[in-house]
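Let's sit down with a protein and look at its sequence and fold side by side. Which protein we use is up to you, so please pick one and set it down. Label the sequence line and the structure token line clearly, so we can match residues to local backbone shapes. Go ahead whenever you are ready, and we will take it from there:

***
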Amino acid sequence: MSTKAAKRSAKQKPGHRAEETFRVLISHQRIRTRVRQMAQEIRRDFPNDQIHLVGVLKGSVLFLADLARELGGEVSFDFISVSSYGKGMDSTGEVKLIKDLDVSIEGRTVLVVEDILDTGLTLKYLLRLFEERKPKHLRVAVLLDKVERRIADVKADYTGFVIPNEFVVGYGLDFDERYRNLPDVCVVRLGPHGKTKVDA
């Protein structure tokens, strides 16, 4: 990569803190293309079903919205909120239910929509919770899969991108509730030397 290209790929975003720089890992155009492909895969598996999307707040919101538009057919939404991360970049390892679903999923074709699958602890908790509620089908779609971080024995049925063990923000993902609105998925670097922080 040329010096100019390197500077473009790791730069400070306008309006953000001087000590934080960003490197684009997955561009918005690549995300849009892959989300469209994922929607086609899902509809191929469930061509006539009403698909009930369950978004895991807050990170899944942008992904869920784009996926729903591409799915076509009958689609409904619900949201659940769980907490496994405190402030900062480290997982607590404990999953707590913050907001439950608004409607029953019994007998429905349910697609759990997650922004990122890393340790798998959150997804394992959700799958156990949802399976007890007797859906017709239960599947999982994740935008990002950080395989190196896996602790729980779970996997997604539909995956956007497998990524390395780096801390990412953008397209719904945050750092202390910031940067969800970035159009790309970016690696964030903190500190005067641009050191990359990763999950512990």
